[in-house]
Write a structure and sequence with these properties.
By secondary structure, the chain is of the alpha/beta class. It has two domains: 114 residues, no CATH class; 159 residues, Rossmann fold. The chain is built from five helices and 17 strands. Strands 3, 4, 5, 6, 7 and 8 form a six-stranded parallel beta sheet that branches. Strands 1-15-11-13 form a four-stranded antiparallel beta sheet, with no helix packed on it. It has a three-stranded antiparallel beta sheet with strand order 10-14-12, with no helix packed on it. The protein starts with a helix and ends in a 13-residue tail after the last strand.
Length: 311
């Protein structure tokens, strides 16, 4: 009788009949991952005022107002903040020969960052010019030199915000805010919003995980599993991650480690914590049986996963 059933099954296959597997593998696909933590960095800033005023007596109050609105815009969420002594390029007269000392500013930035050992300090330069003329070439060049000097000594490149007359291009600027007049509450509001978008700068931390259990939160009853997809930075520690079936040993559960590349002092609104992981397909029963492929194949012997991506 058994021989007759086997012959009949063989004939069905030979004639192209579809094999119906009464006991297909019981499968589940899941994703495991690791998420790095983050840390807010100290804020270090320097105001460079390069404004022109018709009346000399207005100069001091205008410069003081500028420094105050910048100071007031620094978010309270920053773990620490340090304001460097502001630079006034000219006494509100803007001579054509005016310039700024890039090397001296770089030295100030270096000394300021040294106040926060072990932290990723990205300095912030705020340059203000209220005249509807292009920023002088020597000023723009000096701002770029400050950035390059930081990079050359292995420090983080400063971020540059500029407050200038409308439609004036500033190649060195990361953010541009239109200047109207000293004392304009709209400038204060826009500067506060800009600061809220960017500060405090954020860095990744804990980018190397400890060994992580592949099935730490279950499910139970796994007999075998396969790795379906694995992200960059994920290392399988004690199992094959090539899509082949791996027997699950409850006494020696599989582990993996994640190693991510940290970013330092990223603007707050642009920062998303890093994460990486892998997807696995677990088999709970009938692992040696057929899948409903064309032609049918055994789950244990077929490389790769059968179910769709994990949600």
């Amino acid at each position: 009788m058994a021989r007759s059933v086997a012959v009949a099954a063989a004939l069905l296959c030979a004639c192209g009949a579809e094999l119906i597997e009464p006991n297909p593998p019981h499968l589940s696909r899941m994703r495991n991952g690791y998420r790095a933590s983050s840390v807010a960095e100290p804020v270090l800033w320097l105001v460079i005022s390069d404004i022109y005023l018709e009346h000399d007596e207005d100069c001091a109050s205008a410069v003081a107002w500028l420094e105050d609105v910048v100071r007031s815009s620094i978010p309270s969420t920053a773990p620490a903040a340090l304001e460097l002594t502001a630079i006034q390029v000219s006494p509100c007269t803007q001579p054509n020969t005016r310039t700024i000392d890039a090397a001296a500013i770089d030295a100030n930035l270096r000394e300021g960052a040294a106040r926060f050992p072990g932290r990723a300090v990205r300095p912030l330069l705020i340059y203000a010019n209220n005249i509807l003329l292009n920023v002088p070439g020597q000023i723009a060049t000096a701002l770029q030199s400050i950035r390059q000097l930081s990079v050359n000594r292995g420090a983080l490149e400063p971020r540059v915000w500029v407050l200038v007359g409308r439609n004036i291009g500033v190649p060195t600027a990361d953010r541009v805010l239109n200047w109207t007049y000293a004392g304009d509450p709209a400038i204060a509001r826009q500067l506060a919003q800009m600061a809220a978008d960017e500060l405090p700068f954020m860095s990744d931390s804990d980018v190397v995980s400890p060994p992580l259990s592949l099935f730490a939160s279950g499910p139970s009853g796994i007999r075998s599993f396969k790795v379906c997809a694995i992200d960059e930075g994920v290392q399988a520690l004690d199992f094959a991650a090539d899509g082949s079936a791996v027997a699950f040993d409850v006494s020696r559960p599989p582990h993996y480690r994640v190693t991510l590349h940290a970013r330092y002092a990223v603007p707050h609104a642009q920062f998303e914590p890093l994460s990486a992981g892998l997807e696995a397909e677990a088999c709970f029963d009938h692992c040696e049986r057929y899948l409903g492929d064309d032609p049918p194949v055994r789950w244990l012997s077929r490389p790769g996963c059968f179910l769709g991506s994990a949600s």
